[in-house]
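Quick start: read one record
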Amino acid sequence: MDAPLKPLIRDFAAAGTKNNRFTLAAALAFSAPMSVVTFKAGLGAPVSPSAETPFAARPYPALDEAITRSQAYLLSEQKPEGYWVGELIVDVTLVADMVAFYHWWNRVDRDWERRAVHHIFSKQLPDGGWNIYPNGPAEVNATVKAYLALKLAGVPPTDPRMLKAREIAYALGGVPRMNTFSKLYLALLGLVGWNHVPTIPCEVLLIGKWFHVNFWDMSNWSRAMLIPLAIINHFRPTRPLKNGVDLDELYPTGKWQLNESLRPRYFDFSLRNGFLWLDRLHKLAEWVARRRLHPFRARALKRAEQWMLERFEGSDGLAAIFPAILNSLIALKALGYADDHPQVVRAHGELLKLMHHEPDSVRIEPCFSPVWDTAIVEICLRESGVPADHPKIKGAAAWMMNKEIRFRGDWYHKNPVDVEPSGWVFEFENKWNPDVDDTAMVLLALRTIPTDDRARRDACFERGMKWMLAFQCRDGGWAAFDKDCTKSILEKVPFADHNAMLDPECADITARILELMGYEGYTLDNPQVRDAMRFLMKTQEKDGSWFGRWGVNYIYGTWQVLRGVKALKVDMDQPWLHQAREWLLKVQQPDGGWGERCNTYDDPIFKGTGPSTASQTAWAVMGLCAFGDPEDPALIRGIEYLAKTQNEDGSWTEDEVTGTGFPQVFYLKYDMYRNAWPLLALATYRKLLRGGEPGDARA
């Protein structure tokens, strides 16, 4: 121990009483040398302790300084309009898809393509493949798409990098192992036959809600992707490549493999096999429809076109997400829209907005996240002590209130309740698809800011709260977009291999809503709270953790549940909650942080393992804070990890992906997470030291 620290720690220990909520262990943790906060001797100890000052109320400069740095950084990142938005960083597949699309459209910009090639090569793994999350293994869809894009761009197949890519793509199973949506893009270029792609009939829109399984039983995002695909499936607008590019080398045992995935089997009475026989019938119907003999096809096509065009309005492209926007652009061209038609120009323009151009590279975001990011940052700033009347806080609150959606969108088909339309979305504009998760996060932020027009804020909050609570599902949980979107039969259809046909209830969203309800005074006697608590107890894993649907993964789910039930003033000494705490303690890393990779979605054996990250450490820290023990050594080590890894400008560095799009298929690195969640964790711990509670900043 450094000599200058000895008198300080001796005095510090002597000052402890029965009210002492911060032990010598904490003093040692905060007094240890840390990389950025420059912990001089005694900097982390209480300042000028006096007999009159309650121990928990004394300031700790190291913690305060880390919080102040983080606040300053986040405030500096606010956009002039009042919102925050971080980049959503994804794998190379979006860039590869655009390369293929531009060749199909015959509108190749060679300079853009050069930068795309550079970006794709920059993400190639040593084994020659491409992954769908950092440090993950090569994945077949990403690898074949990247390989094809490079071939289309004219990279010689004898290039050593291409030879390695070809080898790993072949080893992964090649083209036959790709999912339906990936094969469909290949069919557009004549690289596979349309008979090798599951049929997506337009008539699905004509099936009424009276039928057990209908269009509205699909997830919100699947509906937006499938309608343009159904149009494409009808017209089959193949444009064979003129440069001789093919993928014949990526069929390990021959092209006959393409038939296997769609070949029904006799005497197999499974649902999956039944759908394969139905696909055969659909293909016959498609053959008839293209000869204008199908009695409903013209009507169904018109309905699909109208549905798509209608949802362009009030949105940054169809559903404001890359796959749906790209599919809609291809569908418009298949329908005969000219290149200079306003809708074609508009759809292409939305794709261009998602691109980030650098001198030697281009990358693409799947969508923008301003509402989500703004709400999270507001919560972090307010919880950490930034006053409600701070100009930037007030500006962000006004921006969020202006984003409330007062329109009855597609949610009404699954939830036709008598509730005033409200809600918020993830993106800038997407009026058809407000979602429960973003709404909960916005309400958690708005409740702490009275704004200059408190009556408007209160009315906005009340509408949003009623709208959100109306989406509780039958088993007590909440899902992302729709109510009771859980008919598992849809997962058996041949084109459901993107792992996103349903929108099931999940623990993380349910717990976030319980957190909000707890802060707003709801108790365990409330029927909705009671049902939600049953759902959380039912979905707990045997080891005490919870699955995280929208964040990676069990750390995310477990933290949110613990924070949610704590807000309801639940007795945290119950065995099921202590089991969750023990799981968090078990998976803490030697460096004091927590980390978990996306491979936990493939095999739970990896849960809680991975390099420590700022965002996941923050989640775990907040989970432990729910038990109210600031002396917990694991909690102190977690706080120390966040403090010592903070950069000089108040930010944190994080290379791992901690956000989830579609498990096993698509992941997101929310660049705002690395800087927002650590601030909330530090603020939560400081409140714990001072005897406060999260959520007590109600205004």
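The radius of gyration is 27 Å.
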